[in-house]
Amino acid sequence: MVYNAGMKTNIQFKKPEEYNAGDILIPEELIKKRIEEIAKHIAKEYKNNHILIVGVLKGAFVLVADLVQSLHNIDFDNFSVEFMTVSSYKGTVSTGTPLITDNMEENPRNEHVLLVDDIVETALTLSTIKKIVTNQKAKSVKSFVLLSKPTNTKPALKPNFVGFEIPDVWVEGYGMDTDQLGRGNPDIIVGPSKG
């Protein structure tokens, strides 16, 4: 099951070339509302099961914090949280090879795992992590990404839960960065051009 973004967000995105660096793409209020909606679907999906939420650092740290608070606010506390640090960009350019620099401490064996990432384009990062977790004998592995971007190639993995489908622009804010800067902006904004 893929719970897609388009139904309830009511955002009309412009064409990528119509954006300028610094433009607000998604305001904080809409991000929080969307995470609350998805938290309800996640709680329903896992209602009788413990889940291991695995956040992909560094970009998803704010998302994971807001997700677990949203789950708690609807009385779903049957989860634990882990993080993996993965690097796949140098500046605004993908390296094409996700590099895991810090693995999670908890073994996912016999766990229902929910991978949480900030953004997906090719899904190489999520696909790499899913293979690792699957090889460690997780019961199930699903994924939630806040942002999904169109790509000219078939993604390596289709996320189960998607917050927003956005145009092909570089973004920062809400934990996401450009060369480690811009993570603190509560909105998702258009970052500097790729290149």
Describe the secondary structure blueprint for this structure.
Blueprint: E1 24-26, H1 28-45, E2 51-57, H2 61-73, E3 79-90, E4 93-102, E5 112-120, H3 124-135, E6 140-148, E7 161-165, E8 171-172, E9 188-190
Parallel strand pairs: 2-3, 2-5, 5-6, 6-7
Antiparallel strand pairs: 1-9, 3-4, 8-9
Helix pairs in contact: 1-2
Write up this protein.
This protein has one domain: Rossmann fold. 22% of the residues lie in helices and 31% in strands. The protein contains three helices and nine strands, in the order E-H-E-H-E-E-E-H-E-E-E-E. Helix 3 (124-135) links the parallel strand 5 (112-120) and strand 6. Helix 1 (28-45) crosses helix 2 (61-73). The protein is globular. It starts with 23 loop residues before the first strand and ends in a 5-residue tail after the last strand. The mean pLDDT is 86.
What tags apply to this protein structure?
31% strand; Rossmann fold; globular; alpha/beta; 9 strands; 195 residues
